């Protein structure tokens, strides 16, 4: 439902965030200052003993200096208690004594009817639970005992038994005063064209299915008779139950994931129960069908990278590959799947029985990325001993890439396929030449004749291999950073300098508007800086009110805190010189990588194994060229031109008609 303007701001203003957070933490009396609304405690999101979790009532934000958790009262309710957005709004409104905005009459009627249907379902839960303890339920109890389910687990998951009588549940509910129409609407009975209604579930073990709000919306039921038409049977589609939009164990799993448990996607009810019993409480399962788009979106709302536990048989692998095909167009940066590949013929319950929780933990920790499973599917069983067969593989890989909707992610998948293809088709490496350049681009030039030429046509200088890091630089973030991390660090430094020296913003406004931030925190800081730079006054204070913890996190980074332009806010000359250098380096490096990626993509479409091997060496040269923090601009230009020259030469070698 839509909330009126200002409603959330009023909520946040009425309830001090410390009141919400205080239910989950114990405040540190020495560091906290209640009069100023300044509170400190051990973080509720990760295990620690020192109070690094900061809550500021005046700003309405919390921030952990240990795990970088941050947000406001609503986000705390969502993260700490596993609530959805509207559930968190309703909880905060109740705390503030505010009335939620009125829903439209039709929506209110639908909600009232769903509430009454959920009440009928709860009556059915209690009936089935009672039947499990009767003489008629002895067979169900024996089956559950063989599966190793103790009484506590059966109570936790509300497992029950539907007796074999034709209308045992129907008559029980009618006697309790439930209207026939409500029993039918809840999906608990089947009404034939002629004759009286009969129970949908008979002689089956029942598993209540609850939504994220804890309402029972349906049942899954396992037949005890070996000759039953369907081993598992779900509630039919109703006003409450849509199996394509529901997940088994959703509510408890959401709460567990909010506390740091991995989200595990299993195949069925018993797998989820076994996993939860072994301590993997963030387990869910679809309801007897392949995962749908809506279920996949639900999973990604719980965790950016769910682990799919595939049964170790051909059917399980086929299910995983179908899920990959479903996910490809929907993926975004930071949002994917990983796959725990179980031993052949085993499901999670089997793994736990034979190897215990440690064996399952090892499989989950070793879950493979989606790209690897996709590559395995495209290459498994292929013999790539001819140009035609290799070209067919390239065609199939391009078709896979075309299905990825996110352009950035498509580029990274393409780079991963190039790397894996190079590994698959790489010829034997040439031996080192005495006194010559060996090891390809990683350590020099291994081809015949002279080493590559520099931008002026002369022979490139031979550079000795880098030595071990100096003690003074070994701990530096730049020393160990890859290209992506270095970009983020440069973005942070540029933003920090402009915030510290707001008088420089007008001269760099165009660069700031075009700054492509690699992480959301930097993007929010950039946008806030553009919003407030022209206001005058204390820029840093206004940004603190706007973006809160993002600003604290920015200046807490060591390479920012110790940078001379940040430590010396009065020296605008040094700040401007540093800005010019950092902006230029960031733009040059990104442009350089884009050119090489484009060239590699174009050439790879018609590459054979030798060319792919050379491109892999060129890629290593890019990695080396863009990382050195101390090179001057002329070195960078020579590296760039030499690299592009070798790529162009490789292209001409493969396709002479282009010369």
Question: Can you give a write-up of this model?
Answer:
With 659 residues, the protein is α+β, with helices and mostly antiparallel strands. Among the domains are: 7-96, DNA Primase, Chain A; 480-645. 51% of the residues lie in helices and 9% in strands. A five-stranded mixed beta sheet has the order 12-11-13-14-15, with helices on both faces. Helix 13 links the parallel strand 13 (307-312) and strand 14 (338-344). Helix 11 (269-277) packs across helix 14 and helix 27 packs antiparallel against helix 28 (633-654). The longest helix is centred in the last third of the chain and has 33 residues, at 572-604. The N and C termini lie far apart (63 Å). The relative contact order is 0.05.
Proportion of residues in extended strands: 5-15%
How far apart lie the N and C ends? Answer: 63 Å
Number of distinct beta strands: 15
Query: Helical content, roughly?
Result: 40-55%
Rounded to an integer, what's the Rg over CA atoms? 31 Å
**Low-pLDDT runs:** 429-480, 603-609, 625-636
Could you report the average pLDDT, rounded to the nearest whole number?
80
Shape: globular
Q: How is the biggest beta sheet arranged?
A: 5 strands, mixed
Strand-pairing-aware structural class: alpha+beta
Count of helical regions: 28
Strand order of the largest sheet: 12-11-13-14-15
């Amino acid at each position: 439902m839509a909330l009126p303007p200002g409603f959330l701001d009023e909520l946040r203003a009425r309830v001090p965030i410390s009141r919400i957070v205080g239910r989950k933490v114990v405040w540190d009396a020495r560091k906290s200052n209640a009069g100023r609304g300044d509170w400190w405690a051990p973080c509720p999101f990760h295990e620690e003993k020192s109070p690094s979790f900061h809550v500021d009532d005046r700003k309405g934000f919390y921030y952990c200096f240990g795990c970088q958790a941050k947000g406001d009262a609503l986000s705390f309710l969502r993260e700490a208690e596993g609530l959805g957005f509207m559930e968190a709004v309703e909880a905060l409104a109740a705390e503030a004594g505010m009335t939620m905005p009125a829903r439209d009459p039709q929506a209110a009627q639908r909600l009232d009817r769903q509430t009454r249907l959920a009440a009928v379902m709860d009556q059915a839960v209690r009936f089935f639970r009672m039947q499990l303890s009767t003489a008629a339920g002895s067979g169900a109890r024996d089956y559950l005992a063989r599966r190793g389910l103790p009484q506590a687990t059966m109570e936790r998951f509300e497992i029950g038994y539907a007796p074999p009588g034709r209308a045992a549940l129907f008559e029980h509910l009618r006697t309790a005063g439930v209207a026939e129409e409500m029993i039918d609407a809840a999906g608990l009975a089947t009404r034939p064209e002629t004759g009286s209604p009969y129970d949908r579930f008979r002689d089956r073990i029942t598993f209540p299915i609850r939504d994220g709000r804890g309402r029972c919306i349906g049942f899954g039921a396992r037949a005890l008779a070996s000759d039953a038409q369907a081993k598992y049977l779900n509630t039919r589609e109703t006003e409450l139950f849509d199996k394509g939009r529901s997940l088994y164990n959703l509510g408890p799993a959401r709460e567990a994931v909010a506390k740091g448990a991995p989200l595990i996607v299993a195949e069925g009810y018993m797998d989820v129960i076994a996993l939860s019993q072994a301590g993997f409480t963030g387990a869910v399962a679809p309801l007897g069908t392949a995962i749908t788009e809506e279920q996949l979106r639900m999973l990604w709302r719980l965790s950016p990278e769910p682990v799919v536990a595939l049964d170790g048989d051909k059917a399980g692998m086929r299910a995983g590959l179908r899920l990959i095909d479903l996910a490809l167009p929907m993926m975004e940066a930071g949002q994917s799947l990983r796959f725990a590949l179980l031993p052949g013929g085993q499901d999670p319950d089997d793994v736990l029985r034979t190897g215990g929780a440690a064996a399952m933990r090892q499989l989950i920790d070793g879950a493979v990325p989606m790209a690897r499973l996709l590559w395995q599917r495209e290459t498994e069983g292929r013999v790539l001993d001819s140009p035609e067969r290799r070209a067919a593989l390239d065609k199939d890989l391009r078709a896979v890439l075309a299905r990825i909707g996110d352009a950035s992610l498509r580029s990274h998948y393409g780079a991963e396929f190039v790397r894996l293809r190079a590994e698959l088709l790489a010829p034997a490496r040439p031996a080192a030449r005495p006194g010559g350049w060996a090891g390809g681009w990683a350590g020099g030039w291994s081809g015949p004749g002279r080493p590559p030429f520099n931008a002026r046509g002369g022979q490139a200088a031979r550079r000795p291999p880098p030595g071990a890091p100096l003690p003074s630089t070994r701990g530096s973030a730049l020393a160990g950073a890859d290209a992506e991390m270095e970009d983020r660090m440069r973005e942070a430094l540029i933003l920090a300098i402009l915030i510290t020296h707001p008088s420089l913003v007008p001269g760099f406004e165009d660069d700031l508007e075009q700054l492509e931030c690699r992480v959301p925190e930097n993007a929010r800081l950039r946008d806030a800086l553009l919003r407030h730079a022209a206001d005058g006054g204390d820029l840093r204070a206004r940004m603190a009110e706007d973006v809160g913890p993002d600003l604290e996190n920015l200046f807490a980074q060591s390479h920012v805190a110790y940078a001379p332009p940040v430590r010396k806010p009065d020296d605008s000359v040094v700040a401007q010189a540093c800005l010019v250098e950092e902006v230029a380096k960031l733009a040059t490096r990104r442009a350089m990588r884009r050119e090489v990626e484009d060239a590699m993509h174009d050439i790879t479409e018609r590459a054979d194994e030798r060319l792919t091997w050379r491109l892999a060496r060129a890629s290593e040269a890019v990695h080396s060229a863009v990382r050195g923090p101390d090179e001057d601009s002329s070195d960078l230009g020579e590296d760039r031109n030499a690299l592009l020259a070798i790529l162009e030469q490789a292209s001409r070698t493969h396709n002479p008609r282009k010369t």
